[in-house]
Design brief:
This protein has 345 residues and is an alpha/beta fold. The protein contains seven helices and 17 strands. 39% of the residues are buried.
């Protein structure tokens, strides 16, 4: 069946868009969506352990969010420029979104002894920008002066101190810095909940997908197949691949935590479950797609007309997903990054 963009639209009352996370994180609500029985259940997120079985493999994205939104000024004129770091090209060059009137050769002062030089226009809305710092010096300065690029539906002008703590999973790896947005399904996990999950004999594995510009890019074409996905870097280390293959062969459930983990696993599956996986992926999952790696998914509620809503509709079935969203709205679930969750199982 051919779907159009309008097939993935729904009306959401603005008061249901979460502006802050609940505390503790695992007290968020959880909608259980059974894709086999078509049954919906209302639970708390901490109850997810009741729906996990010994031997299940929970796959999380360990990418760490960094404050990719920088504010500077033109070296010669003092005019304001916003720099949004998107994709690292090499040690000192990034693909960036730039706010303000810019041109090739422009030097942007971001902080004392920290400058960026605009190199060229990529003709897709992004620019190549060269920085005068690399490695730890670069990320150290960015961490100090940068701001988290919070989604536009979170209504505050800039990130707050609490956001730098809240907008990060507890298992984010400091050696895996690279996401401009959090893999938000993972925000619900607490140390206490992870301890209970492990004690039940559920295996936790990590993959890495650095969330990029695509997470903010709306689908603009009514024909969804005309939509171009931005690529994001995904990686699974060899030892994890070996364990995942063994689990698949043993018939254990592979449960992705978040659409980023799901896209990483499915990208690996589409590459033939290779023994080595580190690549830029632009995989686009929509109804009709046959999952090869993922059996179940823990995820948040997604924006209307988004590729992520298409992904969950592919896994659960479009009709069931429409029912689940209507149920969530009628029961005042909280939506999007800081909102509640569902478990498609």
């Amino acid at each position: 069946m051919k779907y159009s963009l309008s097939d993935f639209d729904y009306n959401l009352p603005t008061e249901l868009i979460a502006q802050e996370p609940v505390n503790p994180r695992d007290s968020a609500r959880l909608l259980i969506v059974n894709k086999n029985t078509k049954k919906l259940e209302h639970r708390k997120f901490s109850d997810v352990v009741d729906y996990l079985n010994k031997g299940d493999v929970l796959v999380v994205n360990d990418s760490k969010v960094f404050p990719a939104r920088l504010f500077g000024h033109k070296k010669n004129t003092g005019g304001a420029v916003e720099v949004f770091l998107h994709k690292k090209i090499n040690e000192n060059t990034w693909e960036c979104l730039l706010g303000g009137r810019v041109s090739s050769g422009l030097i942007i002062e971001l902080a004392p002894n920290f400058e960026a030089t605009v190199k060229s226009n990529n003709q897709d809305g992004t620019w190549l920008v060269e920085f005068n710092k690399t490695g730890a010096a670069f990320f150290g300065t960015v961490s100090r002066i940068g701001h988290l690029p919070l989604p536009p539906y979170i209504k505050r002008p800039k990130d707050q101190k609490e956001d730098k703590r809240n907008y990060q999973t507890i298992y984010a790896d400091s050696d895996k810095v690279g996401s401009v947005a959090a893999p938000t399904a993972g925000l619900h996990f607490t140390p206490r909940l992870l301890k209970k999950i492990k004690a039940k004999g559920i295996i936790i594995e990590t993959v890495t997908l650095h969330v990029g510009l695509g997470t903010f890019s709306p689908v603009k074409t009514e024909d969804i197949l005309s939509h171009k996905m931005h690529s994001e870097f995904a990686e699974i280390d060899k030892s994890t691949i070996k364990r995942l293959k063994k689990a698949k062969n043993n018939g254990q459930r592979i449960i992705a935590v978040g659409t980023t983990s799901a896209r990483t696993l499915e990208s690996w599956g589409s590459a033939g479950f290779s023994d080595k996986f580190a690549t830029w992926t632009s995989i686009f999952i929509y109804p009709g797609y046959k999952f090869t790696a993922v059996d179940a998914l823990i995820t948040n509620f997604h924006l209307p007309k988004s590729t992520l809503l298409m992904l969950v509709s592919a896994l659960a079935g479009k009709t069931l997903m429409e029912q689940a969203y209507k149920e969530a709205i009628s029961n005042s679930y909280r939506f999007f990054s800081y909102g509640d969750a569902m478990f498609i199982c």
